[in-house]
Design goal:
The protein has three helices and two strands, in the order αααββ. It is mainly α. Strand 1 and strand 2 (79-81) form a beta hairpin.
Length: 82
């Protein structure tokens, strides 16, 4: 069993490391500017499948994330509760 939070290679060298890093850091990746370690045909296909599946999901709530959380921006640019 692997603990993803403990997985932190300085350099991705194997496909196993690539997938582990993808599972750990994938939600923070920009699909239009992927890091070098993601530039493989297999990873590009995986990202495209995820993008398609996410795009096909229904919108359950049209409010912005800030509205859902109940925050309003005040005049100095800090989010606070109202």
């Amino acid at each position: 069993m692997l603990e993803l939070k403990k997985f932190n290679p300085n350099q991705v060298e194997t496909e196993d490391q690539r997938w582990l890093k993808f599972f750990k850091d994938g939600e923070r990746l920009n699909d239009e500017a992927l890091p070098d370690w993601m530039i493989t045909q297999e990873m590009k296909q995986a990202m495209m499948q995820l993008i398609k599946k996410c795009a096909a999901l229904p919108t359950l709530d049209d409010r912005s994330p800030e509205e859902i959380l109940g925050y309003q921006q005040n005049n100095i640019g800090i989010w606070d509760e109202q």
